[in-house]
Amino acid sequence: MSESGAAHLVEAGADAKDPAASKARLRLWLKLLKATKHVESELRENLRVTFDTTLPRFDVMAALYRAEAGLKMSELSSVLRVSNGNVTGIVDRLVIDGILVRIPVDNDRRATTVRLTKAGREQFAEMAARHEAWINSLLDGVDAGEAQQMTDQLERIARKSNRKGA
Amino acid sequence: MSESGAAHLVEAGADAKDPAASKARLRLWLKLLKATKHVESELRENLRVTFDTTLPRFDVMAALYRAEAGLKMSELSSVLRVSNGNVTGIVDRLVIDGILVRIPVDNDRRATTVRLTKAGREQFAEMAARHEAWINSLLDGVDAGEAQQMTDQLERIARKSNRKGA
DNA sequence: AGAAGTTATTTCAAGCCTAAAATGTTTATG
DNA sequence: CATAAACATTTTAGGCTTGAAATAACTTCT
Q1: Does A102 contact B at CB distance below 8 Å?
Q2: How near does any CA of chain B get to the CA of A132, in Å?
Q3: Tally of domains in chain B
Q4: Is B3 inside any structural domain?
Q5: What is the reported pTM?
Q6: Domain of A88, in residue numbers
Q7: Using CA atoms, how far apart are residues B35 and B16, in angstroms rounded to an integer?
Q8: Residue A28 domain-assigned?
Q9: Residues B71-97: pLDDT tens digits?
Q10: Can you give the CATH number for the domain in which B89 is found?
Q11: Would strands B71-72 and A100-105 be described as parallel, antiparallel, or unpaired?
Q12: Is pLDDT above 90 for A96?
């Protein structure tokens, strides 16, 4: 199988060409997960105590803040990469709270556009500023150059998820 | 601008006066989240179709595979960084499926140790091998050197979650 | 010993999440 | 036109997740 020697680390059989690289990638994945979970959990806590809201709600609001004209439910679920049914529930609650409105789409009675209300936009503007500061503080072990470099490397991991056709 | 050398004497704090760095960190965070979610979602799908199981179940089994003597519920929830109540539910289902056993702890009737059954260990050994191969493939855009480097950088982000007394 | 505090775990309420089925609408095709 | 196929969204069933409250057992202090 492997032409390179030095493989007396024979543990759980990664049947890859380069076991050392495979282990390095596995360690990277575990660390990636750990760092992400850590930041996510701090963020969740901050959103909860400061604004009495949640990360999924914040994500929906962020997506709609960027898209001033609003988004259809399917666009929202595609941008956020969560299931359709999931978006339904989160939007339902945000509508009840007066943060979002559903607007029928002309010429297609199946679809709905979702948009931030004025109150929703104002609330989000506040949250976004605090959010950036939190992130800045949570990632303060990484300088700007490293951040840029890591962003590019992560891009290569996430890229596959973007390709539309073939 | 003030003398920049003083900053690191005070604290390894985020420099609120550097908007460019702040934006770079924000972009890094968004990309981190995206890459992690992408890999997580592929993994979830693979576990579902190949082994009819879930990521949380896999995580519990992985932790217990490493700890041959088993772990107490509280240790499990601490290792996995999820709430106590959460672990209770996942373990309940794994016990029903014969993958885990709960064992009373001597001299402390409050506590329970959880351990993989023989069947559980065998199942996990299979899954671990496939899991490593999946990760290896999902992260194939990153070579071993980069992986090592990124792992170290991520360590700096996750580290704060570990320090007990600053 | 008995009260008070601490620790380990479970239960609970509410929300998040997914895959799959269901509903209603539009478009394409015979 | 009718009907089949495709589409947008919601509903459903089941599991995950959290924070807080509830139980039960252990420890400490007087």
Answers
A1: no
A2: 6
A3: 1
A4: no
A5: 0.86
A6: 39-158
A7: 27
A8: no
A9: 999 999 999 999 999 999 999 999 999
A10: 1.10.10.10
A11: unpaired
A12: yes
